[in-house]
## 1
Amino acid sequence: MPNLAPYRHGSSLLGQMEATAVPERAVAIWHLGQESVVLKGAGITLYVDPYLTDSVNADGTTPRKFAPPLQPREATNADYVFITHDHGDHLDPSTLRDMAAASPQARFICPVPCVSQIVKAGIEPGRVQGVNAGQTVELGALTAVPVASKHEDYEQDEKGNHAFLGYVFKLNGVTVYHAGDTIGFRALADELKPLGVEVAMMPINGRDFARFGQGLIGNMDFREAIELGRSIGADLLVPLHYDMFETNTENPAYFVDYIHDRYPRQKFKLFVPGERMLYLSERD
């Protein structure tokens, strides 16, 4: 049995986040598993899709392959929490409720159709901001641009608000794209390319007939993620959404092999849950 303990966890992880000094034109990145990431820069700490509960099935088993690197009530450092869509491993009411209590300063940003679910989790409406694709959100030193995603197809409410979003973050002189859940498609590449993405964080768990029949809606696979990242000129590619659940994983070695074969000069990073990376922009 492999050791699936997070690289760093609990108070050790939180202490590292708080102690990490981020220079200009840089961001610190922590991966917490699945698509949960933390970004820090310019005095701002933001979480994307935090899924930090140890969910238990009806038979007493847990679907997670490893414990959360951080418990929600340990996340006292959140300034902003971004949610990409309403699936339980991205919008987890238990995680958000406890994070809201632990980080009373935190604001929660999500697709407009998700606002009611976050409020139902017990978070005050004044702390929740619904956004739609194409809207630029200015949050002090942080700018976030929501980008419409297709989890197979676009999903919109009756007012045309997209239910699935990715975000392009401009923080401390660095531009980071977090795709949320999406397949690759030309309109997405065309929208991202002018935004100058340097770090592209994308799912690679793919889709297939068997999983679709089980209600597991698809994402891009490792090829699509790499080709999308290449098409938008990203400097660093980061695969996500391949490590959490036995029934919906992917071997990241395929991602590595494809880059090695096709694009051997392309930079990439595979994270261990709980691991930190400091990315410094090299763009003029």
## 2
Amino acid sequence: MAFVRTTPPRPVDVPAVFPELASLARPAIRLHPRPGEPSVKESSVGGPLLWPADEPWPHCEGPHVDAGFRRPPAEVRMERRRRARLHRDPEGPACTPEEAAVKEQAAARLGERLDAAPPRPADSPVPMLPVAQLYVRDIPLLRPPGRADLLQILWCAYDHEPNYKPATALFWRSAAEVDHILEAPPEPYEAEYDGYVPQPCLLAPEAVTEYPNSLDLGPELSQVVGDWSRWQAAGAAVDDAYAEYPAEFYDSDLADSPGWKVGGWPPWGRTDPHPCYCSVCEARMVPLLTIASFEWDGETDGWVPYEDRAAAASDYPAGLSPAQPTGVEVGSTDNMQLYVCPESPEHPHTDLIQ
């Protein structure tokens, strides 16, 4: 990996204060995606995939929800580059020749759509967009089937009923078996929302230890982490402002890490825990990948890596938040959680917005 991100130590040693939680510790790998130019031979978010030239590119058959906010992925990426360029150089041109060309192409497409000449793109199979490519050498928590050493995840850039979220697809493969790479994968005519077009990002994987969100604890353990006297007796350095609601501090600073990650515990909060069961063997499924709208927010800024502290505290224009490096936004700035069967990675996966 080309760069490093380091999560600060947790302000409280969870198993020391709450030995009842020690057995619930889970490993996770924070991915720390940051904008860059990944190659097909690197782990990435939104980057190019090591996809065989002789294998059909995944398409989504629908049906698709059409909210009417569509833009071509190329225009979404161009607009992000333009905003970043103007942030670095406020005196620069409003549009470069390349940016102007992309805008003209987008305007022509819009005119075609309004004239109703071509079929609505959501009415036909839609090419899926790369979401993540993860090599097992970088993410050793992954449990690939057979000789596979590479996980590729894509999604449809349109919403799908009944939960109004992108449909996801998951592929395992052996990188050594890919001889000829698909050079120019197809892209969807448009994306439903800008947040469904991941910005190409390099990764800085970091292993951390997580504990379950308080919503995942049973009544007895919930009472334990909510008992302020337990925190005081252990000498935990927690602000007295949390005296009435110590479980909030536990959830925001000690339990599950925010942002993109593999493994660990689910980031409940927007919704209550919703167990998922394998459609083949009925085993309770486990978290594979968290696709996050933000790497941190005002409640979880204690997880900001040391290397990002200055950027997190700086001023930045809308759309350039250092906490949203991937440009992804699912739900109402929520997370999408992908789950897999612990008995067999080849069984169908599922996903939730939470």
## 3
Amino acid sequence: MAKTSIVASEAAHFGAMAGDWWDPNGASAMLHKLNPVRLCYIRDQVDQLWGLDEHSLRPLAGKTALDVGCGAGLLAEPLARLGARVTAIDAAPELIEAAKAHAFGGHLDIDYRSIGVEDLDGQFDLVTALEVIEHVVDPQAFVEALVARLAPGGLLLLSTPNRTGWSKLLTITLAEGLGRIPRGTHDYGKFIDPDQMRGLLAKAGMEVIDVEGIAFSPTRGLHLSEDTRLNYLVSCRRAPPDTSCLSRGSKRLNGLRQFA
């Protein structure tokens, strides 16, 4: 496993955006538009996995949550309002300071730390890493570090741009080219398609529960969709133990007993 998932230049790039992170019209405007879509998906997945009341205002009460690559808290704050005891980490100390200040103003108790996930102790019921994996040193090592932080019976959620021409066009050519996203935010060579993501998760001992696309249209804006070409979310849990070897061994033993 890599010693750290953090790319220093990536941390510096996002850290420079700390000043207006909470401005819905600032450098992080696209994340502000994306966040309600992600929250809708998260709420649906936690309700389904844990059999929660979909009408509850605090469905995550009694649960712990870890948000990796939290920025200045766009996702961590809603998770706290949903009742979770939230730990949120980011590689950019400037973002963590902005996150702490914003949470203080909103009277939210969130444990913010500028640290890599590999250096964090403990396990959490819910682990999120949204729009992060395309910015790390080693995606496989990063996934394994996320899984190490996941408590038994827990839920891991990731999102990332798909590796398609459509995603490159909208995310880099248009969004970055027109200044909707700061230039240099994305490297198409680090985009991950759903099949590759499934492979990374399977190798880390995870079972994919659901894959949902995030699509864009002029009339609906960003929205959940079966179309994964632009961006997608993945929900997963630890894979059940493989009992096939035990089963084969049992059948072989029963077969030998017939000749005893």
